[in-house]
Specification:
Required for chromosome condensation and partitioning. The protein contains 5 helices and 6 strands. By secondary structure, it is an alpha+beta fold. The protein has a domain at 1-135: P-loop containing nucleotide triphosphate hydrolases (Rossmann fold). The longest helix is centred in the last third of the chain and has 31 residues, at 168-198. The radius of gyration is 21 Å and the shape is globular. Bound molecules: adenosine-5'-triphosphate. Adenosine-5'-triphosphate binds at residues 12-13, 31, 33-39, 63, 65-67.
Length: 199
């Protein structure tokens, strides 16, 4: 599986639609200071579900929407699509290509799509689990991340190893099942309370 394309529209400095094609191998992005190189990697993290506006150098999520210049009006929507080649079916979908899209409105509301079908963030997150691609995945190593990993506590670093081993999905399902058991246990206690009041 590899990254094929990134489409950015209305995101940060990219008011016009920009379509970046990635060939197999290494791609370098060069340009003068402030031309938007970091905005490209931020667009990738954002479309993969980044929730922290601060880590995208903003205060709130709407800050990613193009704010306008002297020559161009601000926009109301930011949209990014990322396309992966899925010939190896690393993503468990029967498609040769998988396109993930995220859109945000000035109201702060976000929408997600998998191959143009609307989905919840949770579904997108589950799709990317154990692939190393998610926003916390090891496929994206930003500045300072290596130091961060070295200084992490064992439990935190284990998350990265779990992702590489492909067991995050099972861990997450186990956590959900445990929460359900806990809720059921609380309901049972409540029912027993009511029963003892009735007796
Ligand atoms: P450097 O080489 O200095 O690190 P860079 O090429 O990585 O720079 P970025 O940091 O990606 O550049 O882009 C910064 C530019 O993006 C700034 O000019 C900033 O005004 C612009 N920018 C950021 N957010 C928005 C926004 N919401 N609307 C319009 N422009 C924005």
């Amino acid at each position: 599986m590899y990254l094929k394309r990134l489409e950015i529209k209305g995101f940060k400095s990219f008011a016009h639609k920009v379509d970046i094609q990635f060939e197999k191998g290494i791609t370098g992005i060069v340009g003068p200071n402030g031309c938007g190189k970091s905005n490209i990697t931020e667009a990738m993290r954002w479309v993969l579900g980044e929730q922290s506006a601060k880590s995208l150098r903003g205060h709130k999520m709407e800050d990613v929407i193009f704010t306008g210049t002297d020559k161009r009006r601000a926009m109301g929507i930011a949209e990014v699509s990322i396309v992966f080649d899925n010939a190896t079916r690393k993503l468990p979908l029967a498609f040769e290509e998988v396109c993930l899209t995220r859109r945000v409105y000035r109201s702060g509301e976000s929408e997600y799509f998998i191959n143009n079908s609307s989905c919840r963030r949770k579904e997108l997150k589950e799709l990317l689990m154990d692939t190393g691609i998610g926003k916390e995945g090891y496929s994206m190593i930003s500045q300072g991340r290596i130091d961060e990993i070295i200084n992490q506590k064992g439990e935190e670093r284990r998350l990265l190893i779990d992702e590489a081993a492909g067991i995050v999905k099972y861990r997450s399902r186990k956590d959900e099942a445990e929460k359900k058991i806990q809720r059921t246990h609380e309901h049972l206690l409540r029912i027993n309370d009511i029963l003892s009041e009735l007796n």
